[in-house]
Write a sequence for this structure.
């Protein structure tokens, strides 16, 4: 009897082809709509030929609701390891061509495996998300699978960087994992995140809302603050992720990347005196200050469309990756409000977890007044930023460019919340309140009866005594008063001296941040 022996090598090649096989019509349809498929996304994101797939032959074990007839190698998610700019990363990419990228037991198991590998190896984890949520056909197993992923998100938090990129519509459980990760990137007009979709919203509340208005990229970048970056298209999302990663260490035991050979001094540092008006009531763009101090073209803003009255981002200072927090006088006069406090607090805590030095630029008239702010909890939310600065043990450098009034002075990296080096420009005003407000309070009995000349004299008197940085410098709350054009040099020297800073906190499980 003749028997034909199976060629094991041919079988392997055939299975590899099956794992990567996609219906051409489906691919063309996605491309026409502006979407890549999962494997293409990985290819565009990582270094060429660096991707090593894991669990490509995985199959679900569900037979209910006709699922025994619906199977695909990989089970709707591609997982593995790769390199980005030569640095190792782990990643997963939802394959929306199989059951809409819905998560099942095996799917979740694959994602959990690469998350465990990433944490144990001290490598960043990147998720390319496009999923309709839990796989209904698998019931509680899908829900348990999401919980397993959420648990790992929390275990990885502060240990390895976690980056989420959102494509297509992500719903239900598929949005909570990105929300727990450190940074989320969405694509304009192509990315959506919501707990419940427009149809359910209409059924339950009677509201009619579009996908875009409910959970589009612009909504989450401007209103909710869930996402930190918005790309114009998928190609830009890959560039954003790669650039973001370039500022981050691979894990919490490493220092930030250093690129001394690529450091370029800013071209227009000599213009700093002209950028900031001496008159404290005149607005200016703090970005014009930052770009004249940090390495040329190195500033990368995070959450630029959300809470624009405060700036957060990464930059390089003589090649060293640093974090930047700055008030923005161009918006709400740079006041701290609820959203700004929450945005900056989370950023500061991330940077502290990953040993990224924090440089703060201060021009703040105080907290935003108003009943809405008070009723919505500005005290509680404002305390988050205070807590974050007090908790941070990384090098903290602060520059006061102009106003630093009231409790906002304390919060924004002051000496008393652990600032290592605090500098002020000659234009700095450090006081409880501005001069006019102070006179109205201190001389409130006289205000009604005295002439304008008297009040003007009192304002001038107050300014001479408090609206300058020298009282604070005499008391040691400011280490030095410097010229604006000297800022870069002083920050470089201070950072060099503080690079090995170590602070041991009392043993505790964790603090209780005012959430």
């Amino acid at each position: 009897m003749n028997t034909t022996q199976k060629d094991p090598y041919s079988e392997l090649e055939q299975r590899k082809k099956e794992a990567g096989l996609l219906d051409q019509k489906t691919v063309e349809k996605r491309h026409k709509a502006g979407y890549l498929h999962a494997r293409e996304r990985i290819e565009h994101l990582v270094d060429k030929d660096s991707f090593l797939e894991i669990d490509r032959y995985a199959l679900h074990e569900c037979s209910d609701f006709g699922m025994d007839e619906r199977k695909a190698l990989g089970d709707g998610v591609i997982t593995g390891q790769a390199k980005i700019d030569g640095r190792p990363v782990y990643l997963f990419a939802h394959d929306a061509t199989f059951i809409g990228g819905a998560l099942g037991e095996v799917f979740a198991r694959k994602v959990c495996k690469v998350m465990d590998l990433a944490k144990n190896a001290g490598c960043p984890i990147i998720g390319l998300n496009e999923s309709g949520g839990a796989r209904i056909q698998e019931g509680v197993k899908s829900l348990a699978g999401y919980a397993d992923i959420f648990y790992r998100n929390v275990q990885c938090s502060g240990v390895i960087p976690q980056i989420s990129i959102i494509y297509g519509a992500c719903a239900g459980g598929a949005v909570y994992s990105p929300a727990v990760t450190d940074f989320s990137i969405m694509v304009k007009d192509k990315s959506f995140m919501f707990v419940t979709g427009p149809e359910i919203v209409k059924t339950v509340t009677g509201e009619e809302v579009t996908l875009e208005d409910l959970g589009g990229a612009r909504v989450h970048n401007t209103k909710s603050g869930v996402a930190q970056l918005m790309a114009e298209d998928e190609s830009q999302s890959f560039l954003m992720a790669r650039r973001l990663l370039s500022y981050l260490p691979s894990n919490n035991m490493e220092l930030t990347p250093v690129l001394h050979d690529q450091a370029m001094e800013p071209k227009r540092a000599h213009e700093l005196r002209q950028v900031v008006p001496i008159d404290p009531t005149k607005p200016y763009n703090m970005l014009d200050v930052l770009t004249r101090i940090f390495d040329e073209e190195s500033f990368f803003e995070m959450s630029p469309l959300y809470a624009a009255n405060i700036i957060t981002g990464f930059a390089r200072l003589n090649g060293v990756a640093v974090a930047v927090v700055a008030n923005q006088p161009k918006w709400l006069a740079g006041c701290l409000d609820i959203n700004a406090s929450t945005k900056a607090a989370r950023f500061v805590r991330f940077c502290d977890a990953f040993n990224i030095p924090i440089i703060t630029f201060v021009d703040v008239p105080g907290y935003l007044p108003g009943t809405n702010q008070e009723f919505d909890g500005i005290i509680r939310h404002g305390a988050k930023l205070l807590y974050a600065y007090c908790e941070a043990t990384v090098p903290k450098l602060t520059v006061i460019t102009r106003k630093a009034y009231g409790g906002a002075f304390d919060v924004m990296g002051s000496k008393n919340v652990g600032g290592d080096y605090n500098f002020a420009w000659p234009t700095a005003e450090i006081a409880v309140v501005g001069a006019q407000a102070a006179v109205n309070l201190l001389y409130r009995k006289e205000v009604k009866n005295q002439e304008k000349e008297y009040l003007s004299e009192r304002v001038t008197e107050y300014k001479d005594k408090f609206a300058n940085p020298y009282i604070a410098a005499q008391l040691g709350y400011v280490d030095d008063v410097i010229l604006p054009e000297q800022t870069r040099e002083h920050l470089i020297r201070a950072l060099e001296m503080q690079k090995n800073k170590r602070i041991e906190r009392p043993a505790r499980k964790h603090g209780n941040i005012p959430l």
